[in-house]
Amino acid sequence: MLYRADPFQIDLQIEAKPGHDGMVVTGQVLDLGRSDIFAGGLHVTISNRSGNSVHQLTNEFGEFHGEIKNSDDLELALYCDPEKRIVITLNDPLGVLPGGDQ
User: Fold this and answer.
1) CATH topology (fold) of 2-91
2) Is the CB of residue 89 less than 8 Å from the CB of residue 65?
3) Which of 29, 75, 89, 101 has the highest CB neighbour count under 10 A?
4) Is 25 within 8 Å of 68 (Cβ atoms)?
5) pLDDT tens figures, 15-71
6) How confident is the model over 74-90, as pLDDT tens digits?
């Protein structure tokens, strides 16, 4: 999935963790307003409705990676500075709704 919240572009990949009830979230943040493009050193929080959360920092290439329990929802928060954050909320991020085809 690709998200845009100026000046950032956020590329997300969400996968089920084989053999577990978790999911793996991998992403890259690009700062389109900077000449070096990659948004390194940003605080990223991945959380779900069950109260689980994972805190990461983007690396020098703007990448982050985290594993979290699947509770059919996901919230990703990027902290650009103390006064600004970008929040992406996904319901059923793996595309498997109860009662649907799996």
Assistant:
1) Immunoglobulin-like (2.60.40)
2) no
3) 29
4) yes
5) 988 777 889 999 999 988 877 788 888 999 999 878 899 999 999 999 999 999 887
6) 899 999 877 788 998 88
Angle at 78 (CA atoms; ends 4, 51), nearest 5 degrees: 120
> Do 8 and 27 contact (CB within 8 A), yes or no?
no
**By three-state DSSP, how is residue 12 classified?**
strand
Domain boundaries along the sequence of the chain: 2-91
CA distance 83 to 81: 5
Distance CA 63, CA 41 (A): 10
In terms of C-beta density within 10 A (0-12 exposed, 13-18 middle, 19 or more buried), how is residue 45 classed? middle
Taking the complete model, does pTM exceed 0.85, yes or no?
Answer: no
> Could you give the C-alpha distances from 93 to 22, 25, 49, 80, in angstroms and in order?
12, 10, 12, 23
